């Protein structure tokens, strides 16, 4: 039986809090069932990580902690630095500065040990041609001493409806993605790193994949889920970091993002010539919809806003909770 | 070294090894089969060859006009093209691509998410590549020996043949090591086959020019081909320590350098 004393304060990117322990829970993809389990170990610890390719920026001063059992969303537009971060974690590329640890081990010095405990689904990696699917999966599993891999391969292939006897070059993009998902899950890793895992999958298989990931997470597997599909992250992840132009601009629990008091305000003025500069703090993502209408995100004092608007002739004022997608987009822009 | 990766690479490259071995051996055997005819029409051929400038003969690999009518001399001239040139191309293309293919085929992300270190990847691929080069040289050497035995006109000295075979293997090994360096130095994931073939041909061209009469051939030592003593019919032909040391020393340096670079390299897919 869990009590509140099992949990401590949650802190995220940029906190620099080495004592971080996060409260892990995941929501069932289909709905409301929440499963809680205490988190006592940091699985991924990224400290001031930067990567530059000559003068061009890959990522810049990223700090991030992911706790054991977490389902962590890593979200951002294309080119934001998500894959660069993942490639550093896998030691495919070296950081320009900063450090990263997985399971408390340095990703550069101890990469082999780390890889023995992770499963990775790349965004668009190819598979070795001249192999059949089954042969490829056995080959991948062999690195982990995969004596018991056969049953697991067949179980996962059945779930994702993948024909193991097909030749790799004959596979569609979606089926190649299934192979990549299976090879990452066969050895039952402690950490799953997923880079756009649902790309190319049909909705039914996507749903099964998400169910599978939730099951893995319930078993204690930490999931690092990189995506630019907001709905996926919203449905699956408990915590999220939003990355833009190589920097983490926001990191929080999904529920906390909803509760940030960020309001979407739309004002329709009676006259086109009214000065729309409200001159109050907390206005972001300002956008003029029409000569008479403005829309913006507001995180300031709502009373001050009402007071300002009261002095202007308006036709309509709406203040609403923005959907999570708009909150993400607000941080993206 | 990782046996799983090594075995996979062996299967992956077996077909190419078989094809190259088959083609080179067929060329050697086919060319040597002409030797009987060369002897049979010795007078007529001598008359024709005298019309050919000696420079052209040297460029083709014959140090002396009479080399044509010696089984070993005839073989050695052809060996320059078949094993020294083609073998080196095979070797360099193999070693450069065996590393780079993971990157330009985008399989590096799969491989490097396995519990295997970069050192193990490099060592496994290097071992496989050099084994293939050894197998090619071994098979070609055996076929050459059989061809010489079958088509010889009299006894041929085995020792110069073995020394030439050793030099050829060391040359192929050197180009293999050079291929690893090129692969490790490549910043972008793309095949380097044409570059490697071109590089071998440039070295071969330098070597050929350096052998022409009237040319001071010392500059030919820029080319690794020149480090092989191809004058098999010269008295006292035998293994020379400096040549072996240069090949082995430079190859080892190149392999170590490429391994070091590969360990520090960003794998860009």
Structure summarized in a few sentences:
The complex is a heterodimer of chains A (333) and B (269). Chain A has helices spanning 82-89, 111-115, 133-142, 149-159, 173-185, 203-218, 230-236, 254-258, 302-310, 324-332, and strands at residues 23-27, 34-38, 42-53, 56-67, 71-75, 97-102, 105-106, 118-121, 191-195, 222-227, 239-244, 247-253, 263-269, 283-290, 293-298, 314-320.
Any key phrases for this structure?
heterodimer, A: 333 residues, alpha/beta, Rossmann fold, Alpha-Beta Plaits, 2 domains, six-stranded mixed beta sheet, four-stranded antiparallel beta sheet, disordered N terminus, B: 269 residues, mainly alpha, 73% helix
Structure description:
The complex is a heterodimer of chains A (333) and B (269). Chain A is 28% helix and 31% strand. Chain A folds into 2 domains: 4-117 and 189-258, Rossmann fold, CATH 3.40.50.300; 263-332, Alpha-Beta Plaits, CATH 3.30.70. Chain A is of the alpha/beta class. By secondary structure, chain B is mainly α. Chain B is 73% helix and 0% strand. Chain B has helices at residues 3-33, 35-40, 42-51, 54-60, 71-104, 108-111, 118-151, 158-185, 193-210, 241-264. The radius of gyration of chain B is 20 Å and the shape is elongated. The model of chain B has no long low-confidence stretch (mean pLDDT 88). The A-B interface holds A 87, 90-94, 111-113, 115-116, 118-120, 122, 124-130, 139-140, 142-144, 180, 183-184 and B 2, 4, 8, 12, 105-110, 112-118, 120, 264, 266-269.
């Amino acid at each position: 039986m869990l009590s509140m004393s099992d949990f401590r304060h949650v802190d995220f990117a940029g906190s620099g809090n080495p004592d971080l322990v996060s409260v892990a829970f995941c929501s069932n993809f289909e709905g409301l069932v929440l499963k809680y389990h205490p988190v006592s170990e940091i699985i991924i610890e990224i400290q001031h990580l930067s990567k530059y390719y000559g003068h061009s920026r890959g990522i810049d001063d990223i700090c991030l902690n992911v706790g054991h059992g977490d389902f962590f969303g890593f979200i951002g537009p294309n080119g934001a630095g998500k894959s660069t971060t993942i490639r550093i974690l896998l030691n495919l590329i070296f950081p320009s500065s900063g450090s990263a640890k997985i399971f408390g081990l340095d990703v550069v010095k101890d990469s082999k040990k780390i890889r023995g405990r992770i499963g990775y689904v790349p965004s668009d990696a190819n598979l070795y041609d001249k192999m059949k699917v089954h042969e490829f999966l056995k080959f991948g599993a062999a690195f982990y001493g995969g004596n018991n891999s056969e049953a697991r391969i067949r179980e996962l292939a059945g779930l994702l409806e993948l024909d193991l006897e097909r030749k790799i070059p004959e596979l569609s993009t979606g089926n190649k993605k299934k192979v990549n998902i299976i090879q990452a899950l066969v050895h039952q890793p402690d950490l799953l790193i997923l880079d756009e895992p649902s790309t190319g999958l049909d909705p039914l298989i996507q749903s099964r994949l998400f169910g599978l990931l939730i099951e893995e997470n319930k078993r204690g597997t930490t999931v690092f889920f990189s995506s630019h599909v907001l709905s996926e992250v919203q449905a699956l992840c408990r915590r999220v970091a939003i990355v833009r132009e190589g920097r983490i601009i926001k990191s929080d629990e999904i529920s906390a993002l909803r509760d940030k008091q960020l309001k979407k305000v739309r004002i329709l003025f009676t006259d086109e010539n009214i000065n729309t500069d409200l001159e109050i703090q907390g206005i972001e993502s300002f956008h003029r919809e029409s000569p008479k209408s403005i829309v913006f995100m507001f995180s300031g004092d709502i009373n001050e806003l009402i007071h300002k608007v009261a002095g202007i002739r308006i036709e309509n004022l709406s203040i609403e909770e923005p959907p999570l997608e708009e909150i993400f987009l607000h941080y993206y822009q | 070294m990782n046996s799983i990766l090594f075995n996979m690479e062996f299967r992956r490259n077996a077909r190419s090894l078989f094809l190259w071995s088959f083609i080179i051996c067929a060329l050697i055997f086919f060319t040597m089969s002409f030797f009987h005819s060369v002897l049979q029409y010795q007078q007529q051929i001598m008359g024709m060859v005298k019309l050919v400038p000696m420079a052209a003969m040297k460029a083709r690999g014959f140090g002396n006009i009479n080399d044509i009518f010696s089984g070993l001399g005839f073989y050695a001239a052809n060996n320059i093209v078949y094993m020294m040139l083609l073998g080196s191309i095979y070797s360099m293309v193999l070693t450069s691509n065996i590393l780079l293919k993971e990157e330009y085929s985008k399989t590096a992300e799969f491989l490097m998410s396995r519990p295997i270190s970069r050192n193990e990847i490099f060592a496994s691929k290097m071992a496989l590549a050099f084994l293939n080069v050894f197998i090619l040289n071994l098979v070609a050497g055996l076929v050459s020996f059989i061809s010489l035995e079958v088509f010889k006109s009299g006894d041929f000295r085995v020792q110069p043949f073995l020394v030439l075979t050793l030099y050829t293997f060391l040359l192929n090994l050197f180009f293999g090591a050079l291929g690893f360096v090129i692969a490790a130095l490549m910043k972008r994931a793309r095949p380097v086959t044409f570059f490697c073939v071109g590089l071998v041909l440039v070295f071969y061209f330098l070597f050929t020019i350096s052998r022409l009469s009237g040319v001071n051939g010392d500059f030919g030592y820029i080319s690794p081909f020149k480090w092989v003593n191809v004058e098999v019919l010269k008295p006292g032909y035998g293994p020379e320590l400096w040549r072996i040391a240069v090949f082995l020393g430079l190859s080892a340096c190149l392999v170590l350098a490429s391994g070091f670079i590969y360990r520090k390299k960003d794998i860009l897919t």
